[in-house]
Write a structure and sequence with these properties.
The structure holds two protein chains of two kinds.
Chain A (H helix, E strand, L loop, with lengths): L4 E3 L2 E4 L5 E6 L6 E8 L3 E9 L2 E5 L6 E5 L5 E5 L8 E8 L13 E2 L3 E5 L1
Parallel strand pairs in A: 2-11
Antiparallel strand pairs in A: 1-3, 3-8, 4-5, 4-9, 5-6, 7-8, 9-10, 9-11
Chain B lengths: L2 E3 L4 E5 L4 E3 L2 E3 L4 E8 L5 E7 L5 E3 L5 E5 L4 E6 L8 E9 L7 E2 L3 E6 L1
Parallel strand pairs in B: 2-12
Antiparallel strand pairs in B: 1-4, 3-9, 5-6, 5-10, 7-8, 8-9, 10-11, 10-12
Chain lengths: 118, 114
């Protein structure tokens, strides 16, 4: 167990629907990162939050949004789902913001949430 | 722009033989480099990282990686492969300045044949 908890582990839904993925970071970690892993595109960075604030944004679609709450857990909201959104969504956490020397901090990954859109 | 290339989708090696998983990168300035491993139905696990200093980095489970600045490479190596090393391996890079996120390669599936 890495200490990063993601729920649900599996989710099957239909096109056009909306889902929420949840992540609880490892105890003491302030940063949360979201990644999408699909067969054809590998691991893609979506977004990072540090202590409740957005810190970095990657290839995140406008249909997707995320937030980090005061208790540091994070949610990734995916709306108007399409077949191509089917993927494994990973959350990772780290102690610091990732800027400067803290960029060498190791990310601890959760086990992922597998989303299937039918 | 930052990017990572793992030129081999699949690497097969016999148990007991040395293994190499290749990685080249592109980044502005000096890099932080990482290797992660993913076992089936699991998240990514950290193996090792390069920050600065000695070009040969030693990590978990007997793995090591060599940073080569002139060739912009960070190949993962192990002197003697185990069947349990079979997994998906990811190389990742981030700039020491600039963009605040980790860029991953597309992964290399390592199969160690008994």
């Amino acid at each position: 167990d890495s200490g990063v908890t993601q729920t649900p582990k599996h989710l099957i839904t239909a096109t056009g629907q909306r889902v929420t993925l949840r992540c609880s970071p490892r105890s003491g970690d302030l940063s949360v990162y979201w990644y999408q892993q699909s067969l054809d595109q590998g691991l893609q960075f979506l977004i990072q939050y540090y202590n409740g604030e957005e810190r970095a944004k990657g290839n995140i679609l406008e249909r997707f949004s995320a937030q980090q709450f005061p208790d540091l857990h994070s949610e990734l909201n995916l709306s108007s789902l399409e077949l191509g959104d089917s993927a494994l969504y990973f959350c990772a956490s780290s102690v610091s913001s990732g800027t400067g020397p803290s960029g060498a901090n190791v990310l601890t990954f959760g086990a992922g949430s597998r989303l299937t859109v039918l | 722009a930052q990017s990572v290339a793992q030129p081999e989708d699949q690497v097969n090696v016999a148990e007991g033989n040395p293994l190499t998983v290749k990685c080249t990168y592109s980044v502005s300035g000096n890099p932080y480099l990482f290797w992660y491993v993913q076992y089936p139905n699991r998240g990514l696990q950290f193996l090792l990282k390069y920050i600065t200093g000695d070009n040969l980095v030693k990590g978990s489970y007997g793995f090591e990686a060599e940073f080569n600045k002139s060739q912009t490479s960070f190949h993962l190596k192990k002197p003697s492969a185990l069947v349990s090393d079979s997994a998906l391996y990811f190389c990742a890079v981030r700039s020491q300045t600039g963009a605040n996120n980790l860029f991953f390669g597309t992964g290399t599936r390592l199969t160690v044949i008994p």
